[in-house]
Amino acid sequence: MKLPVECLNIEKWKAFKGIFPGVEGIHRIIIVHKCNEKLYFFAVTSQIEKAKLRSKNDPSSLVEILPKEWEGVITKVSCLECSKRNLKKIEVSVLKEMYKQSSCEVLGTIPDSIKQKIIVSISQSESFTENEKNALTRG
After folding, report:
1. What predicted TM-score, i.e. pTM, was given to this entire model?
2. How many Cβ atoms from other residues are within 10 Å of residue 29's Cβ?
3. CATH number of residue 19's parent domain
4. Mean pLDDT estimate for the chain
5. Backbone Cα Rg of the chain
6. Strand 78-81 and strand 38-45: pairing?
7. Of 2, 5, 56, 105, which cross-links 100 as Cys (Cβ 3.0–4.6 Å)?
């Protein structure tokens, strides 16, 4: 059963699947920060070799996710590129409208093991300032 959009709980560490602005094709996204009516997220990709090439100057920004870590959501080894360049933004109202139109679905809260990997990756990434790291990793 799909919840009415008014009941949609959009917060940090929630995951969604759909086509999102700034991301090519259908992807799973993980919200890592919410500020006022803006959501900041990273996209999950299964194209690990391409991600490694893009992240060669900041390898600590790459988070690998195994299917056993997120059962029922990913079926093959995937990753997130947790660098400033890959941090995307979407308005809460846009995400709610996408949900209302069934162009995205809620995947739920991400597992703690993945959350911890993302926090470590952001903290070690060379692309964020200390203030940005603090804002993205707290809570």
Report:
1. 0.92
2. 23
3. 2.30.30.110
4. 92
5. 14
6. antiparallel
7. 5
Range of the domain at 124: 5-137
Q: How many structural domains are present in the chain?
A: 1
Burial of 53 (C-beta count, 10 Å sphere; 0-12/13-18/19+): exposed
The predicted-structure confidence for 58-102, as pLDDT tens digits, reads as follows 999 999 999 999 999 999 999 999 999 999 999 999 999 999 999
Cα–Cα distance measured from residue 127 to residue 133, given in angstroms and rounded to the nearest whole number: 9
pLDDT band at 1 (very low <50, low <70, confident <90, very high): low
CA distance linking residue 74 with residue 71, whole number of Å: 6
- The rounded distance, in Å, linking the Cα atoms of 107 and 125 is 26
Mean pLDDT of 113-127: 96
